[in-house]
Amino acid sequence: MSHLNEQTLLLFATFIFAMAVLLHFTRKNTSAIRLYMAQSSAISVLLLASAFDRFTPLLIVAIIATVAVKIVIVPYFFYGLIKRHELTFSVSTYLNTPATLAVIAALLVLIQSDFFSPLAMLAPAGDKLLRLAFATILISLFLSINRRGAISQVLGILSLENGIVSFALFAGLEESPGFQLGITFNILIWVIIATVFASMIFHKFGSLDVTTMKKLKD
Amino acid sequence: MALILLLVIPLVAAATSLAVRRKIFVLEAIAAVAAPLEFAVAAMIITDVVRNGSSDYGTYLAVDSLGAVVLITVTLVGLAAIFYSVGYLREEVRKQIIGFSRVKQYFILLHLFLAAMFFAILTLSPIGMWIAIEATTLSTAFLISFYSKPSSMEAAWKYLIINSIGLLLGFFGMLLFLTSTSESGVSKFINWTALTQNAGDMNPLLAKIAFIFVLIGYGTKVGLAPMHTWLPDAHSKAPSPISALLSGALLNVAMLAILKFRIVADAGGAATFSSSLMIYFGVLSIGISAFIIIVQKNYKRLFAYSSIEHMGIAALGFGFGGLGTFAALLHMIYHSLAKSILFFSAGNIFLKYSSTKIRNVKGMLSALPATSVILLIGFLAITGMPPFGIFLTEFYILSAGMGEHLPVVIAVLLLLVLVFAGFLKHIAGMTFGRESEPLPAGESNYLTVVPPVVLLSLFVAAGLYLPASLKSLITAAAALING
Questions:
Q1: Residue B35: closest CA among B458, B446, B333, B451
Q2: d(CA B134, CA B254)
Q3: Residue A215's pLDDT band (boundaries 50, 70, 90)?
Q4: Nearest by CB: A157 against B153, B165, B296
C-alpha cells in the first residue's frame, strides 16, 4: 500500500464506504449491481497496490481471480437472474428512508466512539481508513438486514465482504495467495448457490421478496 | 498420511458418486465402503493423538487432543448417518418421493459435507478452518432444500444468508486476531500456535472486540441464541440423517473454532471476558430453547431446539472453566450420540406417519415398537436423566459454576426441569397416546433401526464406563482450553 499516499487511500476508503451507503437508497437492481461493481473495482485497485512489491505468479493468479469474480462473474450471474425473471426493481426495505438514514448515522457515531479506539491502534497513521472500512462493514450488514429483496440481501453480504477486505488491506494484513484464492473460490461458489436459490425462490413464491416466505412456523 | 487419507476418501467418494449412472445400489455401495474407511482412518488418527499428544502431516495439517474429541463425534455420527441414509433413502425411493438423481445429489453432497468438516478439524490454519466451515454451509444448503418444498426452500435461504453473515463476522474477528502476527516476522502461513504465541502482544481490548466477533460469527453456526433462528428451520427441514449430522457433528465443528479462538483470546488477556461471554450466550440459549420446547408442535423442531439448549450447556461449561471444561467436552460427545439417535428416530417416525407434527403422531408403541423404545431411551438420555452420561456432564458443569455463579446455576437447573417437562409431555403423547386409525406395526427396514441401536449401545456404555484413553484425551483437550 506504500505506493498510494494517505490522501489517495482516504479517497478509496470514502468511495467504498459511499457505495455501501448508496446501496441502501437505490431502488433498481441493476443500479445496485453497478454500485457493487464500482465498490469491487476500488477494492481491486487496492489489492493490486498492496501486492506491488511482492508479485509472485500465485499472487497474480489470486488477484486476477478476485477481480474476475467480483467485477465480471458475480455481476454476470446477477444480471442473468434479473433478465430471466424481469426483476427490474428491488423490493422495498423494512425501515423507511429517514429511519434508515437515522440508523446509518447512529452506526457512524458508534464507530467514532472510544469503544472502537483499539481498532485505530492497528494502523495509527490510518485511523480514518480503518474507521471508514469498519463503517462499510456495519452499513453493509445493516443493508442485508434491512432489505426485503433476495438480491439486495446477497449484495449486502458481498459488500460486507468488500468492507472486510478493505479493512484487512488498510490494517496491513496480507493473506497468503493460496488462501486468497480459497476465499475467492468460496465467494464464487457462494454466489452461484445464492443465485440458484434466488431463482428457485422466485419459482416457488413468485417473488424475491423474502417476506412472502411464510411457510415456516414455530 | 492418515490425515491426507481422511480428506481424500470422502472427496473420492463424492467424485465416484458423480460418475454413477442410474444404479442407486452403486451409490449406496460407494458410501458403505467410504464410511467405514473414514472411521478406520479417524480411529488411527485418534489413537495417534492419545499416544503422542498430536497427529501431524507436514506444515498444514495436524490434530491435537481438542480436534480429536470433535473428530470422534464427526466420524461416529458420519458412519451411522451414512448407513442410516441408505435405509432411509431406500424407503423414500420405494414411496416414489425421490428418484435416482436426488439420491445421487444427496450422496455427493453428503461426502462433500463430511470432507469439509474433516478439513475444518485437520487444518492448522484459522483461515483454512474458516473456508472449510463456509464450505459446510455451501454443501448443506442443497441438502436442507432437498425436498424442494416452499418451506424447505425458505429454511435453506435463511440458513445460507444468516450463516454467511455470521461467518463473515467471524472472519472479521479472525482478521483482528491475525493483526497480532502482521509485524512479528512469522511466516505468511499463520497457524494456531503462531496466533496464540503472538496474542500476548495484542491490546486486550482489541482481543475482546475480536472475540466478540468470533463468538457472534461462529456462534451463529453453533446455534447459540440469539443467532440461532436458522437452526430449528434447517434441522427440521433437512432429511433426518442430515439433521443428525447437522446437530451431532457440525455444531461441534463450529464450537471447535470458537474454542480455538478462545485459547487465542485468553492468551491476549481477555480470559475473564471470554468466560463471561460464553456464560451469557450459554444461559440465553438454554433459556430461549427451554420455553420454546414446552410449546413445540413439531418433533423435529423439538430436537433442534434441544440442540440449541445443549450447545448452550456446553458453552456454559466452557465459561465456568476448570471441571466445567472437561464436562463440556464430554457433553459434546454425549450430545452428538443422543441427538443422532433422536433424529434417526424422527426419520423412522416420519417414514411411518408422513408428518412431523406432534399431534399427528400417536400410538407409536404399537406402530413402531423398536423406534419407540429408542425414542424413549433417547428422551431420557437427552434430558439428562440418570444413569445416562448427560446427567453426569450436566451435574459436573453446574458443580463447576456453583462457587462463583450460583444464581446462574439455579436458573439453569430450573430451565432444565422445564425442558424435561416439555419433552415428557410431547414424547409421552407420541408413544403412549391412542391413535384414531391404527397403522400397521413394523419398522421400515433394518437399516433404519441398526444405526440408532448401535449408537444407543455406545452411548449407554460410554455413560457407564469411560475408557481411560478417552478420559485422558478429554483431559488433555480441557488442559489446552484452560491453559
A1: B451
A2: 10
A3: low
A4: B165
**Closest CA–CA distance from residue A195 to any residue of chain B (Å):** 11
Query: Whats the size of chain B, residue-wise?
Result: 483
Lookup: cell for B41: 482412518
The three cell numbers of residue B445 are 427396514
Test A150 with B172 for CB contact under 8 angstroms.
no
Provide the grid cell at B135.
464450505
In chain B, count H helices and then E strands: 20, 2
Chain B residues whose beta carbon lies within 8 Å of the beta carbon of residue A179: 125, 127-128, 131
Amino acid letter, residue A61 = V
Say if the Cβ atoms of A193 and B138 lie within 8 Å.
yes
Q: Which residues of A touch B131 (CB under 8 A)?
A: 179, 182-183, 186
CB atoms within 10 A of CB B56: 15
SS3 A147: strand
**What ranges do the domains of chain A cover?**
6-212
Q: What is the CA radius of gyration of chain B?
A: 21
Residue from B175, B220, B229, B297 to probe the interface with A (highest A Cβ count within 10 Å): B175
CB-based contact B473:B69 (threshold 8 Å): yes
Q: Considering only CB atoms, which chain B residues are within 8 Å of A157? A: 161, 164-165, 168
Neighbouring C-beta atoms of residue B32, cutoff 10 Å: 14
pLDDT in tens, A61-82: 888 888 899 999 999 999 988 8
Q: How many domains is chain B partitioned into structurally?
A: 1
What is the ipTM, given to two decimal places? 0.91
Say how far apart CA B298 and CA B350 lie, in whole Å.
11
